[in-house]
Amino acid sequence: MEGKLPDTKQRELFRPMLNDIINKRQELVLLADAIDWQYFEKEFSPLYSSVGQPSVPIRLMIGCLMLKHLKNLGDESLAKAWIENPYMQYFCGMRCFFPKVSFINAPEFDW
Question: Which pTM value belongs to this model?
Fold first, then answer.
């Protein structure tokens, strides 16, 4: 089942919104705003089943893959950098700042 990013209409009470804390002219913000993410959603969504547990959102998976290649990172180094860098989180479609990697269900990444 295809996962979805959180709805952006309502603000989180205890989490800072990334739009409030990032520089809109930073390179990852400009790149994220220039990419047609709907294209990836359209291309990959037929590969998902309509039953079962929701997956990680497509934008998050594609964004992480792009970041790994742009920044020359491995899986573990991407997870550590993702926690420290709100621009990476914005690039992957997150609306609020998350101080831990919530999309990996491995105990070594639950900081």
Answer: 0.80
